[in-house]
Amino acid sequence: MLLVTGATGTVGREVLRRLPELAPGLPVRVMAREPARVSGAPASAEIVRGNFTDARSLAGALRGVRRVLLLSVPSAAGDAVFLREAAAAGVRHVVKLSAAAVADEGADDLITRWQRRNEQLLVDSGLAWTLLRPRAFMSNTLSWARSIRTDNTVRALYGTSLNACVDPRDVAEVAVRVLAGAEHEKAEHEGMAYQLTGPEALSAVDRTRQLAQLLGRALRFEELDVEQARTALTARYSAEIAGALVESAERGRAGGKSEVDGTAPALLGRPAGDFRTWAADHLGAFRSG
């Protein structure tokens, strides 16, 4: 039995879509705080209610589970309760979605510290583990959709900073391949931390240019200063999270996110998806009318 958490998130939704093709016949249970929001799960999947900090709900969700895909939002609470209940339930292997910044010694923002703590909790849990450390998701570009639709403008901080962003669909496929192969390839995946990037490092200006070409209309890039960016982020997140995101952007400006890694293609058995392909597949979000 495989338990998938975070199934309503960016990667979780894609994992559910890929399971029937890449892991046919694998018994699947899906845990969500709001089961009604789960879509695209295999027809045979069991969908249960669960909360990362509610031990009772976790005990039920984890009963009979051997492998877990752990997709949790980094927070001060961390994954401690979940991992304790997983160990008690006899879970054998946890594949955790983390972040590439964890391996960067220069990264010390709040979100990265939370991610590091969660990784260490897993490593210390006694469970077999695999860590997936993706760079920023290409789908983060969807945050530009409204301004592109309304006034053909992209507004962002440090527009020339390079980021080897990754297609979240590739991250999902890697997760499924690791989980599906875990019973037969233990030595290959257990105790491994996989950095996952796209095939090239692009800036916000580069992505704006590619979107303009695909849309067939001119787009303007407007550089935000730090305070403008912080104000915009605070409209969506808490002040502490907004501050962490600004710190992360500073690291990107210094080149900390530009390295292209070959791990994703090796695990996928094909080239990693590029931004143009991702954008073409999601172009409707950026079109007016």
TrEMBL record:
<dbReference type="InterPro" id="IPR036291">
    <property type="entry name" value="NAD(P)-bd_dom_sf"/>
</dbReference>
<feature type="domain" description="NAD(P)-binding">
    <location>
        <begin position="6"/>
        <end position="180"/>
    </location>
</feature>
<protein>
    <submittedName>
        <fullName>NAD(P)H-binding protein</fullName>
    </submittedName>
</protein>
<dbReference type="Pfam" id="PF13460">
    <property type="entry name" value="NAD_binding_10"/>
</dbReference>
<dbReference type="InterPro" id="IPR051604">
    <property type="entry name" value="Ergot_Alk_Oxidoreductase"/>
</dbReference>
<dbReference type="InterPro" id="IPR016040">
    <property type="entry name" value="NAD(P)-bd_dom"/>
</dbReference>
